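Forum: Protein Structure Q&A
Topic: Joint prediction for protein chains with partners

I've read a bunch of threads here and the consensus seems to be that you should model interacting components together rather than docking separate models afterwards. I'd like to see that in practice. Below is the full input, 976 residues plus whatever partners are listed. Could one of the regulars post the assembled result?
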Amino acid sequence: MGNIKVTVWNEYRHERHNEQVASIYPNGIHRAIADHLEGVEGLEVATAVLDEPDHGLTDERLANTDVLLWWGHLAHDEVRDEIVEKVRQRVLDGMGLIVLHSGHGSKIFSKLLGTNTGMLKWRDDGEIERLWVVEPGHPIAKGLGEYIEIPREEMYGERFEIPAPDELVFISWFEGGEVFRSGCCYRRGRGKLFYFRPGHEMFPVYHQPEILQVITNGVFWAAPVDGAKTSYGRVAPIVPVVQS
Amino acid sequence: MGNIKVTVWNEYRHERHNEQVASIYPNGIHRAIADHLEGVEGLEVATAVLDEPDHGLTDERLANTDVLLWWGHLAHDEVRDEIVEKVRQRVLDGMGLIVLHSGHGSKIFSKLLGTNTGMLKWRDDGEIERLWVVEPGHPIAKGLGEYIEIPREEMYGERFEIPAPDELVFISWFEGGEVFRSGCCYRRGRGKLFYFRPGHEMFPVYHQPEILQVITNGVFWAAPVDGAKTSYGRVAPIVPVVQS
Amino acid sequence: MGNIKVTVWNEYRHERHNEQVASIYPNGIHRAIADHLEGVEGLEVATAVLDEPDHGLTDERLANTDVLLWWGHLAHDEVRDEIVEKVRQRVLDGMGLIVLHSGHGSKIFSKLLGTNTGMLKWRDDGEIERLWVVEPGHPIAKGLGEYIEIPREEMYGERFEIPAPDELVFISWFEGGEVFRSGCCYRRGRGKLFYFRPGHEMFPVYHQPEILQVITNGVFWAAPVDGAKTSYGRVAPIVPVVQS
Amino acid sequence: MGNIKVTVWNEYRHERHNEQVASIYPNGIHRAIADHLEGVEGLEVATAVLDEPDHGLTDERLANTDVLLWWGHLAHDEVRDEIVEKVRQRVLDGMGLIVLHSGHGSKIFSKLLGTNTGMLKWRDDGEIERLWVVEPGHPIAKGLGEYIEIPREEMYGERFEIPAPDELVFISWFEGGEVFRSGCCYRRGRGKLFYFRPGHEMFPVYHQPEILQVITNGVFWAAPVDGAKTSYGRVAPIVPVVQS
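Posted by a regular:
Agreed with the consensus. Here's the joint model:
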C-alpha cells in the first residue's frame, strides 16, 4: 500500500489577527497538525488555506488528496460554493474528510450531512472537557485511555443538529453541565467523514498528544479503499438471468 | 390528538402530456393518492403541484402541513431553490416527508441527505417487482404480507447513492436480476423521511391496495411529535452545577 | 385501537428489606410506576414480582402483556432461565420491553442484546444527573424540555457494554465527571426495547414527573404493531417467477 | 503490525459423509479456505474442527486467534455451551468473527446477536445468486465488481431474524424471487462480526475467487484494534473534577 496523501486545510485567520492564538500556533493550526502528521509513517502531508487561490483546493491538489482535514470558523461564508461542491463530490467518490471543531458550521459539513450542523450550544469559558470513549474497539480509539481530558476548552453542548452518526466514538462531558457527541463517523457515497470536536483556537489543544493521536487514527480510518466498481444510469433492456 | 395534515405534492406533467399516463391517472398522481388518503380516518388532505404559484408550497400551505408527499421526475430542476430550502427547513423543524419513486432525484431529497441520490440503475421494461419486508414489526409494515408483488414496474437497481438508512423496511427483487433498498427511513433534525420506491407513471401502481397501505402507514409514522424543547447558540457564562 | 396492556415487573426486595427504600416506595417500585400508568388513557396496567409463582410471568400474564417493564438488581440470578427465555421469545414476537436502571444487568437484557450489559462504571454518592435529549423529535422525548435534571442519583458511567443503540435519545451528564448513554432504543425480532437509566432505589426518582413522562412515552413507543406476516423454513421448489 | 492470526473452524461432517461434498472439498471446507488464506501476505492460518477435543478451540488456540471463521450446519447442537461462551467472551474482548452460510444457525451467532438467527427461508434447488454491493467504499468490498454471481447456490430468503446490521455490504438476488441481507457487519463489545451468506456445501462456492476475496477482506476488517483501555465496576467516591 502506498502512502496516504493528507491535506490539512485551515481558514488561517485567527492566527494572523489575534496575538494569543498566534502565540499558540505561530505558523497556523494547519502547520501544527501537519507537523505532527509528517512524523507519522505512511503519510504524505500538504496544507492549504482559505486565502490561497481557490482556497488552495485546486483540482490538482484535490486529485492528490486521500484525506482532507478541515478547520474553519470565522469565514465559512467566504468559501466559494463551487469549491465546496468539488470537495463534496470528491468525498462521495471516496476521499476521507475530517472536520475539526468549529468546522461543524462549514458549508462542506452541512452540505454532506443535509442538516443545520451549525446548530449547537456553546460557551467560551475555558472549562474542563472529558472525551469518554464509548467504542473502545474502534480504530479511531487506538492507543487511548478511557477518556481524554482537556484542561481548558470551549464548550459545545447538545442538541447538535446532526444525523445520528453511523458510529459514535466519543461523548464529551463539560464542567458546566453539558454533554456532546464529539467523535462522529459517517459513510457518505464511497467516502468516510469523521467529526472531531476539540480544537478551540485559544487553547493549545492541537499540541496535546492524545488529540494528535486521534487525528492520526482518523486519517488511517478515513483513507479511501479501492472498493467495488459501480455504474449508474440506464441499463440495457431486460435479458433473462435464467436461460430456459 | 388532532388530525394529521397531509399535502400531496406532484410535478403533474406526465399526466397532462402523455395519454397512457392520463388514462391511468386522469386527475394526476396526486389526486389518486389524495383520494385514498381522504378515506383514512385522522387525516386531512390537500394537494399542491409544480405549476401553481410557489409550486403550491406557500408559507401558509407549509405551515398547515404535517406530512408532505413528493412525486417528481421530469422537472426536478424547475423547482425553485428557495422553495426547496423552505421545505428542507420545515422537515428539520419536524414536518414528515415521504419521497416517492422518481422523487429520489429531487432537490429536496438530495439536499436533505447530502449525497447524489439521483444515482442508481434503471430499466423501463415493465418487469415484476417484489418488495420483501425485512422489518415486519415496523409501523410502516402494518397489515402487509411477506412481500408486495407489483406485476409491471420500472426497475431501480443498486448501487443507490444514499446514506445507509436509519431503518430499512423493504428490499426489492426485480425480474431482470437487480435488488434495491425500496423502503428507507431517516430521521433528520426533528423530522422523519420515508423513501418509498414504487410508482412509475406508466403503470397503475398507486391504485394497488398494498401500495396505498404503505403510503398510509408512512404518513402516520412520519407525522410530527410534540417533542422536547431545544435551544441553540451562546449560553450564559458557566455557573457551577454543583454549589460548594 | 384497543388499550395497551402493560405489566410492570419488579424484583421487589430492596423495598421489603431496607427502611429508606420502603419509605420512598412503600408498596414497591412497581406500584409507584403502575399507579402513574393507571392514570394514563389507553393503558391497562398489571404488576408482577420475582417472588410470585413463575415470577408472576405465567403464560397467561405474558399473553396479556403488550409492553413489559423490568426493574431488577440484587436477584438477577434468581430469575429462572426458562422464564427469561419465554420473555425473550415474546419480545422477538413483538412485545415491547422497557428495562429500567439496574435492570441493565438482568438476564433478559443481556440475552436479547448479546453483550455483557452488566458492565459499566458506577458510584453511589447521590450526585446530580442531567439527561440531555439528543433526539428532540423522537416520540420518547414528547413533552420534555432540553434536559431532565435529577437532584440525587447513582452514577452509571461509560464504557457501557451494549451494542450501539438503533436510536440514542438521552445522554447523561454526572457531577463527578462521567457520561452515559441513558436512553437507548433497539428493535429485535418484531419487538422494541427501550433502556432507560434513572431509578436508583434510594432516591425518589420514580416520583419525578419528567421521569414518569418518559416511561409513559416509552410504553407507547414500544407497543406492538400489527406488522407484516412472516414465514420461515423450507419453501417449495423453485417456480419461475416469470412465466415464459 | 504483526501478522493476523486466523483460525478457520469447521463442523467437518458433510465432507466426510457425503461423496459429492467430499469431491468438492476433499480435505474439508476449512482446508479450502485455509489454503487460500495461507497465500495472503500478513496472515497466519490454523484450523479447528468440531470433533477435535474442545472442538479444537482450546484456551491456547483461542488465545492465538485474532479472527475466527465459523462454518457449521448439521451439528450446531453438539457444540458445547462452555466453548460457545468462551468464544463469545473472546469476541467481546476484541477477536473478530466471520460466520459463513449455515453458520447463521450456530449457537455463537445467535448468542452474540440475541435473536433467533436460525430463522429464514431456504430452498435447495441450485439456483443463481447475485450478491449486489450496496456499500462500494467498504473495506469488505475491496477489489470487487458491482456484484458477484454464483451460478448454483442454495437460496436463503428474508425475513432473516437478525438485528439490523451496523453496516450492510451485500444484498442477494435469487432466481426464484427472493432477496437476502448477505453481508452484515456488527460491532459487539470490542469485537467485530461479519456474516457472509454464500457457501452451501454441495457447490464449489469456496473455490470461486470473488468469494475468497470477500473472506480475505473480511479477515482484515475484523482483525482486532489495539483500542482504548476500559475499566468497569465501582469507582472511587466522587472527587470534584473542578477544584474550587
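Chain C has seven helices and ten strands.
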